[in-house]
Amino acid sequence: MARVCIPLAEGFEDIEAITLIDVIRRGGIEVVTAGVGADIITSAHNVKVIADTTIDKVSADDFDLVVLPGGLPGATNLAKSQEVKKLLQDMDKKGKYVGAICAAPIALKEAGVLKDKYTAYPGWQDNIKEEGYVSDAKVVEDQNVLTSKGPATAMCFGLEIVRKFASQEMYEQLKAGLLADFC
Amino acid sequence: MARVCIPLAEGFEDIEAITLIDVIRRGGIEVVTAGVGADIITSAHNVKVIADTTIDKVSADDFDLVVLPGGLPGATNLAKSQEVKKLLQDMDKKGKYVGAICAAPIALKEAGVLKDKYTAYPGWQDNIKEEGYVSDAKVVEDQNVLTSKGPATAMCFGLEIVRKFASQEMYEQLKAGLLADFC
């Protein structure tokens, strides 16, 4: 079974984080949420979530993918965290996957693990890099980096992660079960 | 400013609950989450959320809408709660709005506040009532009752609530901001 770590920093985008957790767990993939700087984290829209663990206890050895929810200031808090940076760099060095949605690809950029092509929240590429920004895809994969656009693409992003780390069959079953015909 | 109460019972559907909270709060509407039987509630996919209050402290006087997330056993836990039932009946008596998504219209039915037309998770109408079930709409409004289908329609349901309790302008702004072109 694949294992996915989702770091949660103060101000994480609620829909993006929770949709990724829900869809990936539905796919039979283990998800561990890791609080950045605390174990109770408040979202961008004031929902208090108790994380499964804290980021200082997380090792790249234990995961196949680390994926970051967006939101402000959630994404910039992720980008500023030395522990998140080290985790992303360790994942990248081991040839493992990293991912981010919305504003969070800025943390991939800061850690130096972003490759050429990527997507992010429209307009936010100005804060990351113009070159390689893909405007017309819900999910972009380039080498070991998976990115997506924003709240309304989080479900499709989760489904693509399920397709990649579980199976095509599980992807189709979940897509139908979620009623996600737009993905 | 309108006020919305979202009861959370053990096993609530993560995406549905959090998407409603997020979208409605983005719309400038006050949302109060109310734990049923506890103030820390675990979702259907094992996310622990600290509710803003508990259901025993909530009064219909204070809200314009009470809307229920689905999920199993979240929805059946809502349907079994005498406090949720009384709150829904009080809202209905006062001519205020009640709503539910996915499996949760069963709680509206149990409380006797469901009107004629409604929607719910496809197939789940067998557990509620066949008559009046609308299969081809993301959101159905009949008198003071708002219903929706499942995880992938939660964002559109939230947006419709914003259109109704905030404004058309806010609806359009949020729909664009969320990238929710499918709503």
Q: What do these coordinates show?
A:
2 copies of one chain form a homodimer. Helix content of chain A is 34%, strand content 20%. With 183 residues, chain A is of the alpha/beta class. Chain A has one domain: Rossmann fold, CATH 3.40.50. Chain A has a 7-stranded mixed β-sheet. At the A-B interface, α1 and β4 of A face α1 and β4 of B.
What are the main properties of this structure?
183 residues, alpha/beta, two-stranded antiparallel sheet, homodimer, 34% helix, Rossmann fold, globular
The low-pLDDT segments of chain A are none
CATH topology call of chain A: Rossmann fold
- Strand order within the widest sheet of chain A? 5-2-1-6-7-9-8
Biggest protein-protein contact in the assembly: A-B, 32 and 32 residues
Query: In the residues of chain A, how many domains can be counted?
Result: 1
Radius of gyration computed on alpha carbons of chain A: 15 Å
Treating each run of at least 4 consecutive H or I residues as one helix, how many helices of chain A?
6
**Tertiary shape of chain A:** globular
Q: What is the percentage of strand-forming residues of chain A?
A: 15-25%
What is the number of E strands of chain A? 9
Summarize this entry quickly:
Two copies of one chain form a homodimer. Helices cover 34% and strands 20% of the residues of chain A.
Give the topology.
The structure is a homodimer of 183-residue chains.
Chain A lengths: L2 E6 L5 H13 L3 E6 L4 E3 L5 E3 L2 E2 L10 E4 L5 H7 L1 H12 L3 E5 L3 H7 L27 E4 L2 E4 L5 H12 L2 H11 L5
Parallel strand pairs in A: 1-2, 1-6, 2-5, 6-7, 7-9
Antiparallel strand pairs in A: 3-4, 8-9
Helix pairs in contact in A: 1-5, 2-4, 3-4, 5-6
